[in-house]
Amino acid sequence: MEKNKLYYGDNLEVLRQHVKDESVDLIYLDPPCVGFGLTEG
């Protein structure tokens, strides 16, 4: 996996094709609206 490269596509497919097994400790996902306080409720 190259540094500073944007991968566009299905998350699982990109991870399986471009990221080596056991090379990632944490993946944090923040849906677009949640981080900006735009969720309903």
Please sum up the structure shown.
This protein is mostly helical.
Write the layout of secondary structure elements.
Blueprint: H1 11-18
Describe this structure in words.
The chain has 41 residues and is mostly helical. It has one domain. Helix content is 20%, strand content 0%. It has 1 helix and no strands.
Query: Helix and strand succession?
Result: H
Number of strands: 0
Q: What ranges have pLDDT less than 50 throughout 5 or more consecutive residues?
A: none
SS-derived structural category: mainly alpha
- What characterizes the major β-sheet? none
Oligomer: single chain
Q: Counting H and I runs of at least 4 residues, what is the number of helices?
A: 1
Determine the mean pLDDT: 76
Portion of residues in beta strands equals under 5%
Radius of gyration: 14 Å
The helix content, as a percent range, equals 10-25%
As for the number of domains, it is 1
* Large-scale geometry: globular
Q: Termini, distance in Å? A: 39 Å
Name some characteristics of this structure.
mainly alpha; 1 helix; 41 residues
